[in-house]
Amino acid sequence: MTQAQPVIVNNPGRESDSGSGFLIRVVLLIIVGVFAVYFILPYFQRTMNRDVQINIPKTVDVNVQQK
Questions:
Q1: 24-52: buried (b, 16+ CB within 10 Å) or exposed (e) per residue?
Q2: How far from 42 is each of 26, 30, 31, 37, CA to CA, in Å?
Q3: Does residue 42 lie in a domain region?
Q4: Chain segment 6-56, per-residue pLDDT in tens
């Protein structure tokens, strides 16, 4: 009985363009992050705080009268 030998296939990528895909993804991720912080987060803050009203009196009476 004979055993089959494993075959190792090495397919290297294109060497001239190997790092540019990673660099493009990193730059796009940074652009999307900046866009989210600059536009999307303020939008959610405005929509969540729309119904909140805080009334602060101009003067507070702290005189306590005991009987």
A1: eeeeeeeeeeeeeeeeeeeeeeeeeeeee
A2: 24, 18, 17, 8
A3: yes
A4: 887 777 666 665 677 888 899 999 999 998 888 888 887 777 766 767 788
Nearest 5°: the CA angle 58, 60, 62 is 165
Let me know if residue 67 belongs to a domain.
no
The model's pTM is 0.43
Determine, yes or no, domain membership for 3.
Answer: no
Q: Distance (Å, rounded) from C-alpha 44 to C-alpha 65?
A: 47
Q: Quick check: is 66 in a domain?
A: no
- Domains identified in the chain, total number: 1
What is the radius of gyration, based on Cα positions, of the chain? 32
Q: Which domain holds residue 36?
A: 21-49
Token look-up 């990673």 returns: 22
